Amino acid sequence: MQSEMTVAKHLLTFLLAAMVPLAAHTQSPHVDFVPEVVFAGRSEGKGELTLLMGRARPFTVESVGTLQGDGALVLRQQIHFEGKPVETRAWVMRRTGPGTFAATLTDAAGPVSARTAGNRMTLRYPLTRWGLSMHQTLDLAGDGRSIANRGSVRFLGVPMGELRETILLGR
Question: Where residue 29 falls among pLDDT bands split at 50, 70, 90?
Fold first, then answer.
């Protein structure tokens, strides 16, 4: 009985030792969401916006980000919804502290607040002056080459629509 327990312990130790390198190999590398780096250069997004009980409206976004001499990030975007003319907008984002940013967006009805933590950035901004707002979560992939952008359009805090987009960086 004692020898069976010893064999079982050795076998378990061997299996665990063999699995550690495998687990380390399969984990994604950790990347921090640094907007000034992530959005520098060209990127392309493709997604859908669904409002209320309506059908999903597919869209594409082409973006070009540049870092200004004062440290501000300027992100110029062209957005195309199927069947509609191309819309243009611009973000201007400045770091205000560790992981915090203040921003403006040409089609927002007020200031944008932004925070980063690890590989995630969260954005909140008013879409209208009467209670419609956007809450977005952008998750940077472990390889640093794409972002999953999920947004919630809200009216006085109640979800009214959903945004889903994949952004490919460095295009």
Answer: low
